[in-house]
Structures are given as C-alpha cells and as structure tokens.
Amino acid sequence: MPNKHPSYIFTLTLFDRFSGPTNMPRKPLPGHFSLLYFASAATYTRKASEDLPAPLTVPDLYKHLEKNYPGIGEKVLTSCLLTINLEYVDIDGLGWEAASSTTIKEGDEVAVIPPVSSG
Q: pTM for the full model?
C-alpha cells in the first residue's frame, strides 16, 4: 500500500512539476501563470505548484488562495513574501492600492516564499 504521508504527496508533486536532468520548471498552461509554493506554503496547500488563470491582480490572488485554502492568509501569507518573475513584490511598502495595480500575466512565475532564517 502506498505511503500517504504528506511529504510523500509533496515529493510526487515536485516530481510532476520538475522534470528532466536540469530540474527546470515546466511552462504554465496557455492563458495561465505558475504559482510556486515553498516551505510552510507548500505544506499548507500540499502542493509545490499549480497553474492559475491569468491575468490576476495580487489582491485577487490572495482572495483566490484564501477561498481554496481557508486560513492560509492568516496562518501563512501574512509572514510570506511574494515574487513575480523573481522580483519581490513589496506589498507592505506599496500598500494594497498599489499592489492591486500589479497584474500577474500569462506565463509569469509567482512564488510564495515564507521567512528564511540564517545563522
């Protein structure tokens, strides 16, 4: 009987998302963008990634995540950073009005990155 442990699910998702000898991510579906989850975000969603329909504003992305993963806003997203195409989106510095004008487009790669500690 297969192992149903969450890390097993996560490993399968990672295998589905990354393929080939270089482990490069695949392109999103046409009309979509890729959303990558790391650490606590991946644990909460039980996914390493998913493709979502584009275009979508940053606040709409957060609403979508809260609808599909109830509680993720308070438990995960409040302490996470967001990147679009490897560039950080400074939601705190910009405020939600400016963030609402930030549109995620087809083919973009968005990542939810929880805090990183060093030491």
A: 0.74
